[in-house]
Amino acid sequence: MGRPRLVIHGAGIVGCALADELTERGRTDVTVVEQRPLHATGGSGSHAPGPVFRTDPSKAMTKFAAYTVREYGGLTPGGRPCFDRVG
Q: Do residues 37 and 61 share a domain?
């Protein structure tokens, strides 16, 4: 394997979402690095499990939230869903 052309620093929610989006768009040269074990990351995703607000005064943010819910709803690591739609 050659050297990665695109390196994402941090395997939190933003880094992983970005890697997922880029690979969905056809990138094959993406590497995500994290300084700690994935089950104990130090990023904001590990201690900010807040809700995903589906409405916003901004039309763009409302569309982004709907997209986020669709994407997270389709994640099933190990065959189990990891996004709980409550409320």
A: no
**Residue range 52-73, pLDDT digits in tens:** 777 888 999 888 888 888 888 8
Q: Is the pTM of this model over 0.70?
A: no
List the alpha helices (DSSP H) in the chain. Answer: 13-24, 59-73
Helix (H) or strand (E) holding 32: strand 30-33
Give 73's Cβ-side CA count (13 Å radius): 9
Tokens 């709980």 -> residue: 84
**Which ranges of 25-84 does DSSP label H, i.e. alpha helix?**
59-73
Q: Give the chain's domain count.
A: 2
